[in-house]
Amino acid sequence: MITTKDEMSEVALSLFKENGFENTSIQKICETLNVTRGSFYHHFESKNELLLYWFSQNTHQFIQFDRTLSSPKVILKKYILDYARLITSIGKDLMYYIFMAELELQGEHFYIYYGERQYYEDLVDQAKKNGEITSIAPTEQLMNMFSAAFLGTVVLWRFHTEELNLIDQVEQIFESIYR
What we know:
Elements: H1 5-19, H2 26-33, H3 37-43, H4 47-62, H5 72-90, H6 92-104, H7 117-129, H8 139-159, H9 166-177
Helix pairs in contact: 1-2, 1-4, 4-6, 5-7, 5-9, 6-8, 8-9
C-alpha cells in the first residue's frame, strides 16, 4: 500500500492522541497503515520529524496573515492569536513533544511556524512607522523578545497545574512587547 507523508502523519497523530507520543512506536504506526518500516523511513527520519512535519502542515493550513485587516499591528495580533488557538487545540502534551522535537533538531523549524518571517518583520516595521508600535527597540529585538516570551509561556502552560488561558497570556505578551 502506498502511503503519502500527509496520510502517515495524520494516522500517527491519531495514534499519538489515543496512546500518547511516547507509547506509540514507529512499528505501531506502520502496522496501522499496513506499510513497512522502510516506507516510514522513506518519508521521515524519526517520530520527531513526523510530528514536526504534521505541525508545520497544520500551521501553514490554519494560520495565515490576514492582509485584509485594517493595520499592520492588527494583522500581527490576529496571526499570533490564531497561532495560540492552534496550540491550545493541539493540547499541552502533544505541544510538549513538538517543542522537545524542535530542541532535538536545534530549533531549526521554529521560524517556519511564524510563516513568512520577512513579512512579519515588515509588518512590525510598518506598525512602528504608523505609530501603532512606539517602542524604540529594533524590530529584530522586539521579534526575539516576543518569540522568547511566547515559547516560555507555552512551556509554563504545559506544566501549569491550574488552568492557564494561553490565548489571554499571549495577548498580554503581544500588547506588552508590541506597545
